[in-house]
Write a structure and sequence with these properties.
single chain, about 200 residues, alpha+beta, 2 domains, binds zinc ion
């Protein structure tokens, strides 16, 4: 069973279970820029740097996109040059937090354990590294920092989230994990996860 609580906006990078070796890997979202003019499509189709995709909007209109996987290029847009007119490398620079829609779960992951650096389509929260189960429900965090906040919050006596960096995230944690009854067991599982 998967958790269905809010997970937008997401950070640009999240910790996942490496699809190759199941150790901790870092997933980085790819950034997508709309190609406005038909004449620009061949450039992106032929480019080794970009992936060209077409999508349909909610009215069924097709649109074209150039996708750049910064995670395959040192998390930077410096690899981009010689673009068609009216495009700038910065257009593919990420905003730190972004509300994601279905077509933008594309990205790449880097795994320090098995040294894999590959494209990956994120499945969330299934891919989450910091994830535990409690009474058939999944509790997850984006990364070690938010998992630590989650641990400290549930382990503490206060119900106030104001002092936490990830307070917005903490506000969305379902009550089932926060009840006095659940806290003990949830905190223990989180502690074990954070030990590694
Ligand atoms: Zn790995």
């Amino acid at each position: 069973m998967t958790g269905t609580y809010d997970w937008n906006p997401m950070p640009h990078k999240v910790d996942i279970l490496c699809p190759q070796c199941n150790e901790l890997a870092v997933f980085e979202f790819a950034e997508l820029v709309r190609i406005k003019l038909k004449k620009d499509i061949p450039f992106f189709q032929d480019s080794d740097l970009f992936e060209y995709h077409t999508f349909s909007d909610s009215c069924g209109h097709k649109w074209h996109a150039a996708i750049y996987f910064a995670g395959l290029h040192g998390s930077s847009v410096n690899a981009i040059s010689d673009l068609p007119e009216n495009y700038k490398p910065d257009h593919w620079a990420h905003s730190k937090y972004l509300t994601r829609s279905n077509e933008t779960y594309l990205g790449s992951y880097a795994c320090p354990a098995c040294k894999t650096n590959n494209k990956h389509t994120l499945q969330w929260p299934e891919d989450a590294y910091y994830s535990i189960e409690h009474k058939g429900k999944v509790l997850w965090a984006f990364n070690r920092e938010s998992a630590t906040d989650l641990y400290d919050f549930l382990n503490g006596s206060t119900r106030k989230v104001d002092n936490f960096k990830w307070q917005h995230f903490l506000l969305h944690i379902p009550t089932v994990f926060k009840t006095a009854k659940a806290r003990d067991s949830v905190v223990k599982k989180l502690a074990k996860l954070l030990e590694t």
